[in-house]
Design a protein that fits this description.
The structure holds 2 protein chains of 2 kinds.
Chain A (H helix, E strand, L loop, with lengths): L1 H30 L3 H22 L1 E2 L9 E2 L3 H8 L1 H32 L6 H13 L2 H12 L6 H8 L7 H4 L1 H26 L3 H9 L4 H28 L4 H6 L11 H11 L3 H33 L1
Chain B lengths: L7 H44 L3 H4 L13 H41 L6 H13 L6 H10 L6 H24 L4 H9 L4 H30 L2 H6 L7 H10 L5 H21 L1 H8 L6
The chains are: A mainly alpha, B mainly alpha.
Family (chain B): Belongs to the binding-protein-dependent transport system permease family.
Main location (chain B): membrane
Subcellular location (chain B): Cell membrane
């Protein structure tokens, strides 16, 4: 008994060794095609970030020529004392979650309406995806000027038909205005994902539910929604990754104003770096944002892509 | 469809009324769908209408819905030197997309067809760079580009757009490569075909639709990119989004002209997206949704 076990062990070790020997030569041949893309990505995205970390430890303001000394973690202490940084962080959360949530609700409604045969289905789908294809800069100016301008905007004209007095949208409700433009742009994205989920539903299950006499609401709640879950999760996650970096709409619609009422983190960091020339502090904020994003997203990301890969 | 057992006569009657009711609900839902789609699409209609208005009818209260359409705003935009910006956007988008495809196809091949250890880690590394907020790297990029004297240079944008789209392209192409049946590849390997030959004669033809979808997504994101273009370009290399913003800020408000410029700026991507609707969802989900 004992000898066979040892033999078996040796055999396994030998197998492992030869496998290793093969995989060293073979491994590089396999890895080869991956290297250009990997090296390019590391050089272009990771090296600048290392430099950002370096900047964040320095007292560097372009307006003060005597600056640019090593200050350790002083910038980090400063930004956590900075109330605008905190309010921008809060705005980032409100804008991102608000946009993703509303776009998801609208996207589910549109997808349910599209997931049936009717006259002009293709035209309606084409209309509904168009806001996503409009250049975001064009979409932002369209909303801030043509739609929301207090004196000639289309929205104020529409609400005047039911007797509501004109509203100065971007000045009085900056976050709501930004959300309108963002939700309009991102609803097609969530709609397409949910629609893909609806169309991947096994038809026999739906028919079975119908034959059992389940109402539409019951079928949706107990059959469709669980099936859609991972599509919704994926939409929320990817939507968050895209929307959290929102810059165009804020730059063009409110410039973060009034004051800093509607600045999110990307816009505030941009302001500090390119208008305040405070490289050190802007860099420290960038580092904080990156750490926060990676911590939050990496767990969710692995989870969701695993569920998709497992199903395939 | 009703499964209740009743007298034959009432069954047919009931069925008729159920059918009628269903037809009515069906057309009601269709009407609601069209109405909602119209409301959602209305800003686009309004944008296009404004672009064809004379300036006097553009920013008016109450809004003007009937007017004699004119091309003068489009002519004004083109006469205003839009061509140079479009050329810059075309170069930045086109060259970066080609580079992305050239880098992403071999990489996706390596992680999907013949995966090595740590493949998962490499894939998640790629996607994690997508989560890196660009604003966190813009300062070093600005400073380094300044030292290398490549500020306001289209090449700088090309490199950055390539890096921006590469992770999406690798993930997308991976999902297409995974659909290639293993037997086909085994047969090729038995015939002694090398990497280049396998790619060229078997894999690339099989994943060409995927390649087109990947390129489309890269084109959309590169064409619409504003943040890098705003901060890293000036007179020479500025792209279409920068041109649009200059239309708004430098000469006061000419709404009809701005709308015409917006229509021209959005048109290439809108048409591309309309044509390739089916591929859009796969690209946006980085290949996760088929």
């Amino acid at each position: 008994m004992a000898t066979t076990l040892v033999d078996r062990h040796n055999l396994k070790a030998h197998e492992l060794r030869t496998k290793n020997k093969i995989s060293k030569a073979e491994g590089w041949r396999r890895r080869g095609p991956l290297l250009p893309a990997l090296i390019f990505t590391i050089v272009i995205t990771q090296l600048p970030f290392l430099v950002t970390i370096w900047y964040s430890l320095r007292n560097w303001n372009l307006l003060r020529p005597d600056g640019n000394q090593f200050t350790g973690l002083q910038n980090y202490v400063d930004i956590f004392m900075d109330s605008t940084f905190r309010s921008s962080a809060l705005n980032s959360i409100v804008i991102t979650l608000g946009c993703v949530f509303l776009a998801m609700i609208l996207g589910i409604i549109f997808a349910l309406l599209l997931d049936r045969k009717f006259r002009g289905q293709g035209v309606v789908r084409t209309m509904l995806i168009t806001p996503f294809l409009i250049m975001p800069v064009a979409g932002a100016t369209l909303w801030s000027i043509s739609m929301l301008n207090p004196s000639f905007g289309l929205v104020n004209w529409v609400i005047s038909l039911v007797g509501i007095p004109p509203v100065d949208w971007t000045a009085q409700h900056p976050i709501i205005s930004i959300l309108m433009a963002l939700v309009w742009q991102w609803t097609p994205f969530t709609m397409l994902l949910v629609l893909a989920g609806l169309q991947s539903q096994p038809k026999d299950v739906l028919e079975a539910a119908q034959i059992d006499g389940a109402s539409w609401a019951k079928t949706f709640l107990w059959v469709t929604l669980p099936q859609l879950r991972r599509y919704i999760e994926l939409g929320v996650l990817l939507g968050t990754i895209y929307v959290v970096n929102t810059f165009d709409q804020i730059y063009l619609m409110t410039a973060g104003g009034p004051g800093t009422a509607s600045a999110n983190l990307p816009f505030y960091i941009y302001q500090r770096a390119f208008l305040g020339f405070d490289i050190g502090q802007a860099a420290a904020m960038g580092v904080v944002v990156v750490i926060a994003t990676i911590v939050i997203a990496s767990f969710a990301l692995r989870l969701i892509f695993r569920s998709f890969d497992a199903k395939d | 469809m009703t499964t209740t057992i009743t007298e034959p006569a009432t069954v047919s009657q009931e069925r008729k009324s159920v059918q009628a009711r269903r037809r009515f609900t069906g057309s009601a839902i269709t009407t609601v769908t069209w109405l909602l789609a119209f409301i959602f699409f209305a800003p686009v209609i309004w944008l296009v209408m404004t672009a064809f208005k004379p300036e006097s009818a553009a920013a008016s209260n109450p809004p003007v819905f009937f007017f004699a359409p004119t091309f003068e705003q489009f002519e004004a935009v083109l006469a205003n030197g839009a061509g140079a910006y479009f050329l810059n956007s075309l170069i930045a988008t086109g060259v970066s997309t080609i580079l992305v495809v050239l880098l992403a196809v071999p990489a996706a091949y390596a992680v999907s067809i013949r995966p090595v250890e740590k493949t998962q880690d490499v894939l998640f590394f790629f996607i994690s760079t997508k989560m890196l907020p660009v604003v966190a790297v813009i300062m070093p990029i600005y400073v380094i580009a300044g030292q290398l004297k490549v500020l306001d240079n289209i090449g700088t944008l090309i490199i950055l757009y390539t890096a921006m789209n590469l992770p999406i392209a690798v993930w997308m192409m991976r999902s297409f490569f995974q659909e290639v049946p293993a037997e086909v590849l085994e047969a090729a390997a038995m015939d002694g075909a090398g990497l280049v030959k396998t790619l060229r004669t078997i894999l690339i033809p099989m994943v060409t639709p995927g390649l087109a979808a990947t390129a489309l997504i890269c084109v959309i994101f590169a064409w619409n990119e504003f943040f890098f273009a705003l901060n890293l370009t000036a007179a020479n290399a500025a792209t279409v989004p920068v041109f649009l913003v200059s239309q708004m800020t430098s000469e006061g408000l000419f709404l009809a002209k701005l709308s015409a410029a917006s229509v021209l700026a959005s048109l290439p991507v809108v048409i591309a997206g309309w044509v390739a609707q089916k591929q859009l969802v796969r690209g946006l989900s980085m290949g996760a949704v088929k």
